[in-house]
Amino acid sequence: MGDADKQYLKNINRFAEKFSQKNKLNLTHSNQTLSQARLDKLKETAGTELKTTRTITLAKGEEKYTRVQLLVNPLYKFKK
């Protein structure tokens, strides 16, 4: 990032701080980038989804199943 861009961002931050002080607003400070926050949320969601128990129900009726094949990622584990 160029020096002019860095100075521009500093000016915006100064303006936001002065504006919040003048209008008695509380600014939150984040120690995390937006992309890191999104990645953390994605990891959390993936972990939750992997822990969720899934079941498969086959329809009862005249159909006869001779074979059912399930293909899954080798990292998944089946409960017996």
Structure, described:
The radius of gyration is 26 Å and the shape is elongated. The N and C termini lie far apart (55 Å). The protein is mainly alpha-helical and 80 residues long. It has two helices and no strands. The mean pLDDT is 83.
Task: Write a concise keyword list for the protein shown above.
80 residues; 0% strand; elongated; mainly alpha
Brief overview:
With 80 residues, this protein is mostly helical. The protein has helices at 3-22, 34-51.
SSE layout:
Blueprint: H1 3-22, H2 34-51
Q: Into which percentage range does the β-strand content fall?
A: under 5%
Biggest sheet details: none
| Secondary-structure class | mainly alpha
Helical amount:
40-55%
How many distinct helices? 2
Measured on Cα atoms, how large is the radius of gyration?
26 Å
Q: Could you report the average pLDDT, rounded to the nearest whole number?
A: 83
- The SSE string, one letter per element, is HH
How far apart, in Å, are the first and last alpha carbons? 55 Å
Shape: elongated
Poorly predicted regions are none
Overall strand count: 0
